[in-house]
């Protein structure tokens, strides 16, 4: 489809049960990092080290969502979304990292904050979707070894138990992890994200403990909230070879980027045929019985898709023997502020790829969106490129749905411009512009486009 082709959908084309939401994460929006008993998480510590956040900024204030959630949710309602995805700050709820089962405290003020937030959603008719872990590991647990320490599986189980007991009677949509691949690789192998550790030695334990926590978390939610829909999310991208000779490189990158965490949860084990170094997990890291414990029958899988990847063979990248061919090198015209290629068809392809797994019952697009440079002109933000991004990616979601793939919702990343991890506040992904000096909110043209799609009885027009 060409950007100039007319759209051929309105919200009814997606069906009346289709979920329309935005996705957010606690650390990126809340601020209030030292209020009401919250203790630091790895991002607080990492962000204070020189040079870790490109712009030198911190998330201490972010969008002040901790104080502004009521008016922000009213705005969210006004835009017409019927679901709101947010995550729980682990160290706001369990300031010691561990829960009562391991001698830690529950912070009642932290519990109360999310309780108010959930109630506000419910009062407005917005379905709350909770993510248990969106990268903000309590620093107290990093000091005890973090994800490379096998005890993390029990610590995470404590957290899941406390949260589901607190909110399970009201919240029926639960996501265990946000993008396990991103936080394990960037946090413990390349060191670009918190806690900023760089070691190959840690990588396999981190992967294995994460995959175990993913399944264990699923079991706890199901046990404590039997009527919940339980899912987890994956970052994913179709992988294309740069030249026909790069086919095997593409297969290896696909195994790493798209298969590493879904396949163990489906009982298929790690993709060690394509990535032989993963075989050491079963031989050296796993304990007896672990390989069976990796499986859990999730009710849904959340796909988080932004771009496709094109790769080539590389002898300089150990274990993977492949590297990315950047959009710049490929002369791609439409690139976002993150340097990602805008390539709508990749949305259709990735849904199709995951739809081929027998064990996947339902798919939600739990994140998709784009950072473009935004300018406020006479109090307005005309983010045409972002409008087109969502229109064209949604068109491809619809294409997959019309072919019978079980895709049942779309969460735009993201509601408000926010703290974009190691990039600071510069890349703006929001449907709502945030002036970080004044905390003023301005609904962008993209937010208005969703509002029109979701609230008006009109065929969507450009
Ligand atoms: C995802 C992540 C989000 C957000 C987004 C845009 O990987 O879950 O927190 O940062 O990317 O980069």
Automatic annotation (TrEMBL):
This is Beta-glucosidase. The active site is at residues 179, 367. PROSITE patterns: GLYCOSYL_HYDROL_F1_2 (PS00653). Belongs to the glycosyl hydrolase 1 family. GO terms for molecular function: beta-glucosidase activity. It catalyses: Hydrolysis of terminal, non-reducing beta-D-glucosyl residues with release of beta-D-glucose. Keywords: Carbohydrate metabolism, Cellulose degradation, Glycosidase, Hydrolase, Polysaccharide degradation. InterPro entries: GH, GH_1_N_CS, Glyco_hydro_1, Glyco_hydro_1_beta-glucosidase. GO terms for biological process: cellulose catabolic process. NCBIfam families: BGL. Substrate binds at residues 28, 134, 178, 306, 413, 420-421. Its EC number is 3.2.1.21. It holds the Pfam family Glyco_hydro_1.
